[in-house]
Amino acid sequence: MPHLMLKDLPRYECLLEAAREFPELDPTAAEAYLHLLRTADDVFALSESRLAAAGISQGRFGVLMLLSHCSGPRNGNASCATGPRTPAELADAAGVTRATMTGLIDTLERDGYVVREPDPSDRRMLLVRLTRKAENFLTRFLPIHFRGASEVMGALSDSERKTLVRLLGKIQHQLATLPPPAPTQKTA
Questions:
Q1: Predicted local distance difference test score (pLDDT) of residue 122
Q2: Among the listed residues 91, 82, 127, 83, the one whose alpha carbon sits nearest the alpha carbon of residue 109
């Protein structure tokens, strides 16, 4: 389901008119914000449809990627984190609750994509590892996935892509500095 429930975005002139009624509305900020939301929704929908055609959900695919490819530091170590990981590490890396990760791992295990096994260094812990079936799936699907990403970004030059990444980084930094929203009173 899309996050932005507008098929057609408002024209800039409409945003200018709305700014007369709502002085807090910065028309250029609103226009950029709406385009960002619309583009993110469209890209996510395309990704979802490609994953669905391959028989896997976005969340489950994310877990497979965390287990199969470099995804950043592990246990405070700056080296690349690949291979078996604990469910807690996977939840932290994916930015989801441990309960959500348990559900994702359960379905991946049911479908034969991962196995849980005792950690050889601490038998109280479990590690999640990819199966041969998952590795074969990723070998077949990743070229399609990466080609799709290249097709989407094909409208931009390398320089424009680098600029986009830099600008999105600035937005992500700004988001991290914003306080949580204050509760608002409901109006019936």
A1: 86
A2: 127
DSSP states along 77-112: B-S---S-B-HHHHHHHHT--HHHHHHHHHHHHHTT
Q: Are 153 and 161 in contact (CB under 8 A)?
A: yes
pLDDT value for 124: 87
**Helices (H), ranges, the chain:** 12-21, 27-53, 58-68, 87-94, 98-110, 132-153, 158-177
How many CB atoms are closer than 10 A to CB 140? 10
DSSP 25: -
- Close Cβ partners of 90 (under 8 Å, ≥ 6 residues apart): 63, 66, 67, 101, 105, 128
Query: 65 near 134, Cβ under 8 Å?
Result: no
Regarding pTM above 0.90, the answer is no
Q: How far apart are CA 19 and CA 10, in angstroms?
A: 13
Q: Under a CB-based contact definition with an 8 Å cutoff, are residues 137 and 64 in contact? A: yes
What's the CA gap between 168 and 85, in Å, rounded? Answer: 29
